[in-house]
Recover the amino acids of this structure.
């Protein structure tokens, strides 16, 4: 058996039992135990971790622990520069694309409304989600820690809130999305990108009232749905304003 010491920093403490938070923990483990395995034995999904120092040096998830190693485990850094040390995470995904687990249908709609490529189906299995995430380089959003522990999963985020609006705030903050929002450019039903259409192209299919009140229309070529800036637009604008205020408050 090996004896090692481990300490989790910042919001990673959220995943620990109360007695283990914010302090160094002594732990025994078998020879051959990796960083990934020991982190997850504490209930922390590896996708939440960006940097692990072993005796002060940064190591990858596959590093096998040695007797008396001292581990410092850090979450994603948002506000300070760690470019000089190597991260355990592979290269960040350049385009922010998501895949959501089956319980996050409302959040999926919100993310689509903000223009993010978001795959969602209420019939996805964990296996399908992790495979598709890997294949299409998507970030998994879930409230299921088990899903994030799968080996194939490289990019994911554990959603803390149960409220869909707060969930959206969490995601915008965690992935620093404020500057990449493209509201009302994606179909909330099927995730397809909307195209702008001229009123005359769809004039026959629109109710009179709508035609009189609005002059700008978007169209989903997959579900043949026409969008205009009606009440959902106003609601979403309100939510967007709240996000701006909320995120700015933290900056
Ligand atoms: Zn559609």
């Amino acid at each position: 058996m090996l004896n090692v010491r481990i300490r989790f920093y910042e919001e990673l403490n959220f995943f620990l039992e109360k007695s283990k938070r914010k302090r160094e923990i002594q732990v025994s483990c078998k020879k051959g135990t990796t960083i990934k395995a020991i982190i997850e034995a504490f209930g922390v999904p590896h996708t939440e971790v960006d940097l692990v120092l072993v005796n002060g040096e940064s190591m990858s998830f596959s590093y096998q622990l040695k007797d008396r190693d001292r581990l410092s485990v850090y979450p994603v850094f948002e506000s300070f520069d760690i470019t000089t040390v190597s991260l355990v995470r592979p290269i960040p995904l350049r385009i922010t694309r998501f895949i959501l687990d089956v319980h996050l249908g409302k959040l999926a709609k919100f993310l689509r409304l903000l223009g993010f490529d978001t795959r969602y189906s209420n019939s996805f299995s964990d296996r399908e989600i992790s495979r598709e995430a890997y294949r299409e380089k998507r970030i998994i959003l879930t409230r299921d820690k088990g899903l994030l522990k799968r080996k194939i999963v490289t990019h994911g985020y554990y959603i803390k809130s149960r409220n869909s609006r707060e969930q959206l705030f969490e995601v915008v903050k965690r992935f620093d999305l404020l500057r990449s929002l493209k509201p009302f450019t994606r179909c909330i039903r099927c995730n397809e990108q909307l195209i702008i259409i001229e009123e005359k192209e769809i004039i026959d299919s629109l109710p009179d009232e709508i035609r009189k009140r609005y002059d700008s229309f978007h169209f989903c070529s997959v579900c043949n749905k026409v969008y205009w800036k009606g009440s959902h637009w106003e609601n979403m604008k309100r939510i967007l304003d709240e996000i701006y205020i909320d995120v700015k408050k933290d900056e």
Notes: The longest strand covers residues 2-8.
